[in-house]
Amino acid sequence: ALNAFAQAGVRERFDREFQFLKTHMLSPGNLAFWKLRSNLVPFDKSNAMIDDLRIIKGLLRGYEKFAVQEYRDTALAMAGVIKEHGLSGNAVVSHISWNDNGFYKASHLILGYADFEAMSMLEVYDPAWKSIKEATLEIVKDGQFDNGLFPDRYNFESRLYESDPTLQMIFQAYVGEHLAFTKKTDRAKKLL
After folding, report:
1. Which of 66, 136, 157, 171 could crosslink 112 through cysteines, CB 3.0-4.6 Å?
2. Contacts (Cβ under 8 Å, ≥6 apart) of 181
3. β-pairing, 87-88 with 102-105?
4. What is the model's pTM?
5. DSSP state of 36
C-alpha cells in the first residue's frame, strides 16, 4: 500500500499506512513482523525479506514524493538491520528471526524474495547495497533452469538450489518481475 499511495501522491493515505507500520508492524529491532494476528499481535518474532524490502521501497518512494525525513530514516534503519543481520556471503537471506539474545538469519534465500528494485533504491543512500544487490542477483541468475523456471530457494550452507513443494508458483512471477527490473530481460522473458 505504501508504494501505491506514494506513486499516486495520496499523502493522507500514505501517512495512515506509515502510522500502522510504526504502531503495529515494526519491531523494536526495526524489522517488520512477517505476520500479525487478527488482534494485531505479532505471530512470531521474524520478518520476511520480501516484505521488508517492499516496505523500504515504499518508504523511499514516499520520501521522494513527500519529502518527509522520517520515511527515509525508517527505511534506512530497516535496511541497516538487514545489512547487519540478514546477509550471507553478502546476499540477502529469506528472513531474520530474533529474541532477547539477538538476531538469527535464515540459511537460505527464497529466490522470489530478492527485490532488486528496492536494493537499487537503497544504493542511492548507501553504496554498500550495490554489492549486496550484485551478490544476490548472481545467486538468482545462476539458479535458472533450461526451461526458464527457477528453483524455489538457495541454501547458503550446502551451496545448492532446492525446491520446496510448500511454495507457490507466485514466486516464479516474483523472480521474473525482479529480474525484469535489473534489465535481465532475456532471463525474465524466458520465465514469463
Report:
1. 171
2. 116, 117, 120
3. unpaired
4. 0.92
5. B
For residue range 3-52, list pLDDT tens digits in order: 999 999 999 999 999 999 999 999 999 999 999 999 998 889 999 999 99
E strand segments, 5-147: 87-88, 91-92, 96-99, 102-105, 108-110
Say if CB 60 and CB 53 are below 8 A apart.
no
Rounded distance between C-alpha atoms, residue 97 and residue 104, angstroms = 5
Nearest to 92 by CA among 73, 76, 79, 101: 79
102-142 pLDDT tens trace: 999 999 999 999 999 999 999 999 999 999 999 999 999 99
